[in-house]
Amino acid sequence: YLVKVRHLIYLLTVALVLHAAQLVTTYSFKNCNTAHSENKTFICHRRREENVSAIVSDLPSSAINLRICFNYIEHIPNQSFTHLPNLTQLSLDQNNISTLDERAFQNLQQLQMLNLTLNSISHLEPLLFQDLHNLRHLALAQNKIKVLPGHIFSTTLKLKMLILEENYLFDFSQIVSSVSHLQSLTTIKLSLNKLTSLEHSNASLPRSLSNLYVRRNNLSSLGCRQSFLSHLQYLDLSFNPRLSTDAFQGVDLAQLNHLSLQATNVNIIHFLNISNISANSVDFSGTGLNNDSRLEEFCKVLGRKVDNVTNLTLKSNGIHRLSSTSLQYCPKYIEKLDLIKVFEAEHNNLKQLEFCRGQRPFKNLKYLSYRYNYILIVEDYAFHPTPNLVNLSLNINRIAWFGRNALHGLTKLKNLRLDNNLLTDLYRETFQNLLNLETLNLASNRISVIFNNTFKSLRNLKTLDLGDNKITHIEKQGLHGLASLSKLFLNDNNLKEIDTSLYYAFSDKLKVLSLESNLVRFLSRTTSSPFINLSQLTELNLGRQQPFGLTLLPRNFFRGLHSLKSLHLTNNHISHLAPDAFDDLTELDFLNLEYCCVGGVQLQSGVFKNLRNLTRLIVENMGLQNFSNKVFGNLTKLQSLQLNRNVMHSIDVDTLESLKNLKYMDIRGVPLTCNCENSLLQNWTINNPSVQVVYLLDHPCQDSTKDRFYNFPTNVCYVDLGQFLCFTTAAVIFLFTVVPIVFVKLYWTLKYSYFVFRAWFSEQWRRLRDEEENCVYDAFISYNFSDEQWVFEQLVPNLEGNGSSFKLCLHHRDFEVGRNIVDNIVSAVYSSRKTICVVSRNFLQSEWCSLEIQLASYRLFDEHRDVLLLVFLESITERQMSYYHRMRKVMLKKTYLQWPGSDCTDPAQAQKLFWSQLRRAMKANSQCETESGDSPHNRAQHSESEMSDDTQYLLP
Asked: Can the keyword Ubl conjugation be found in this entry's annotation (predicted)?
């Protein structure tokens, strides 16, 4: 019964999953996933779905952030998100959306950010955003919008940022009309549209607007009132090649903090003469200042307009060379030459940095950038005029020769970028003055050897990036002096071994070490740990060793790393992981073993036994064949488990239940079989509200791609087969043992019960009970046909004749013709006051006689009525009677009569007494009357003195 109930519950659960997935208690979703247990942030990425409702229908109402991207959605119908009233951020970017119904965003009153970038939207319904009363950020970039409906933003009064870049908008006046009432709007991005002018009607831009981006349009004039742009702080008009200087005639730009005119037709010198803008607010990048003569003229204009220059940006001007006289006519006081944030010489054609003798120093210069040039040579003392530099960026050039004294005097430098150049050698003299350097980036060069004492002076260096070089060797004292180093990147080099002697100088401070993509390989399991002194290391990356990977992980390889939090061993083709491989990593929080092993892997029992603080484990595509408690059972703090793309066919549920803090599990690509072996796993995944199983509702069955794992039938799986066979076998044995006994002992009892029930069922029982109260016969005679002569010659004449006048029921005379014989017997027994059984050996062997005595004896014992008389025609031994249990029971309880045979001394007298006793017995203890009305109590009573000692009868 319980099994059936359980099956019923299971079927109901499956039905709910199929028809209303959101009602399933599983913390898994068909097309979305989240790494947060609170069901707040969801990402629905590359699901190839066309129907947005199919993607979001099973998401909970608690969702706050939702991103649906890279799908095939073309249409957003009405009320698509009404069940998600708590959304504050909704991103529908990079789909193929072309139409949105008017009520698509109904009920999203809490929404603050809506992103519809990179779609194919060409038309917006006027009431599309009417429910978005709290919207603050709206992105409609990279669509096909030509016109904004006049009242589309009528209810979005809290909108702060509107992004309309890369559309087909051409009427600026219409844009102004649609946003003029938005008093919270601060930013409008209209770049990459079809605007030809900023001409507008009587409407004005909101006074709250401070940032306007109109780059890469077709502007030829501004066409706006003098005060139209007076409240702006940031204006980008770059890359409008038709925009000329005359367009700014009479326009108030005094409040601007930043104006970009790159790649326009504006003569920057003439512009400065006619405009009221502060020169410090102009970005001079890409304004044609590409030679000394133009720079000199430019500086003269600056000198007339301002007393000093605080910000000067000259990037993308095509400058080939900066001489000592290039900026000599600029204002005397240049307070800040900021070449990273403000003054940048990036994206030019500089090829060499020379030592400028006699150049007056720029003592206030803190940030200098020469990125994105063609610099090949940096001469000695090239930065002598900038002694107070803090940040220097020389990256993304072609520097092949770097003077040993090029950085001389930069004692305050903290950040130096030399990455993405062609450097081959490093010298001690190069860095000896950089006493305060904290970050040194030398990645992506051609360095092959680190010589002794190269970084000896860099005692304050915290981060050293030597990644993506060709380093094959580090001399014994190559890293000597790096006492404060906390991050060292040696990834993508040609190192073949990890020597602990290299790191002794900074072992107490190093926290991050990357050795990814080198040539490290081990052939012996007994190699000593190279990290024995790195007791403070928190992050270690050993992934992707080339060309064959580590192949072997030595025993105790990670000894000493007691503080390690993160370990990467990805793509290493390790053939064996020793049981004690991670024993020292007691503080490990994140372990990535993705693609780390070769073929099918059998992880050793206890390999993770000490990782009790591990919260995230990636074992993707390791070839795992099993998921056992002996391997994973100790990970009691594990929250995220990625098992995807392994070869196991089942996952042990007991092991999963031991992971008490598990919140996220990825089993995509695991070929789980849909059979009874995984029935418990199916039940666990769909009924565990605390663990998110990624895309569970889309997980296929290994043996049938049409079926899904979460709903394959498990009806027969809940019965234990062994238990079932045990009980079945026991039942069969019991039946074969008990049935024969029951047959022998209770055959007639059961048969009688059946007959009585059948009589009751056919509504004859009531009639029989009525007949009992008004008996038809005085006695029913039960006898065998072989004793028929005695019955008719002796019994009938003495009971029905000779003045006795008893009415007897006899088979051949009184049974109803055509009626079932069993019904006749039942009717005869219950319509007679007594049943007289004429017992002989033939009687005992007769089935019908046995039935008749059984029926009579049931009346005797069950109804407590004296209705049975036994008459023995011949002497029967105790042994012969032992088989007839019911008859022996009657004989022990009631008087029975023995017919006197010829061996009596006086047969005539004995027979006379026999008939007298039989008549008397027939008259005794009867409550019913015969149809003649002759009650037994009215008949003559025989005196007990008629009995004599010669009469053969037995008492109980």
From this structure: no
> For 212, phi and psi rounded to 5 degrees?
-135, 120
- The β-bridge partners of 946 are none
Residue 837 one-letter amino acid: C
Residue type, 627: F
Answer whether 920's CB lies under 8 Å from 897's CB.
no
Output Rg (C-alpha) for the chain, integer angstroms: 53
Model pTM score: 0.68
Cβ neighbors of 202 (< 8 A, separation 6 or more) are none
The answer to whether residues 249 and 225 touch, using CB atoms and an 8 Å cutoff, is: no
Separation between Cα atoms, residue 228 and residue 249, nearest integer Å: 13
Rounded Cα–Cα distance for residues 81 and 67 (Å): 13
User: What's the chain's length in residues?
Assistant: 956
CB-CB contact of 694 with 665 (8 Å): yes
Structure tokens at 314: 């000259």
Question: How crowded is residue 933: how many other Cβ atoms within 10 Å of its Cβ?
Answer: 7
Residue 238 belongs to what H/E stretch? none
Question: Measured between alpha carbons, how far is 780 from 852 in angstroms, rounded to an integer?
Answer: 10
pLDDT, one tens digit per residue, over 182-222 is 999 999 999 999 999 988 877 888 999 999 999 999 999 88
CB atoms within 10 A of CB 287: 25
CA distances from 833 to 377, 681, 929 (A): 136, 71, 8
Asked whether 245 and 267 are in contact (CB, 8 A), the reply is: yes
Classify the phi-psi angles of 32: left when phi > 0, otherwise alpha if psi is within -120 to 50, otherwise beta.
Answer: beta
Tell me the helices (H) and strands (E) count for the chain, helix number first. Answer: 20, 42
* DSSP strands (E only) in 638-752: 640-642, 664-666, 692-693, 700-701, 704-708
Name the pairing type of β-strands 896-898 and 953-954.
antiparallel
Whole-angstrom CA distances from 319 to 300, 314, 316, 355 are: 18, 9, 8, 17
Question: What is the rounded CA–CA span in Å between residue 24 and residue 18?
Answer: 9
List the domains of the chain with CATH numbers: 40-194 (3.80.10.10), 208-283 (no CATH), 763-954 (3.40.50.10140)
Q: What type of residue is 779?
A: A
Q: In 10 A of CB 887, how many CB atoms?
A: 22
Give 931's Cβ-side CA count (13 Å radius): 9
Q: What is the pLDDT of residues 263-277, one digit of tens each?
A: 999 988 888 888 888
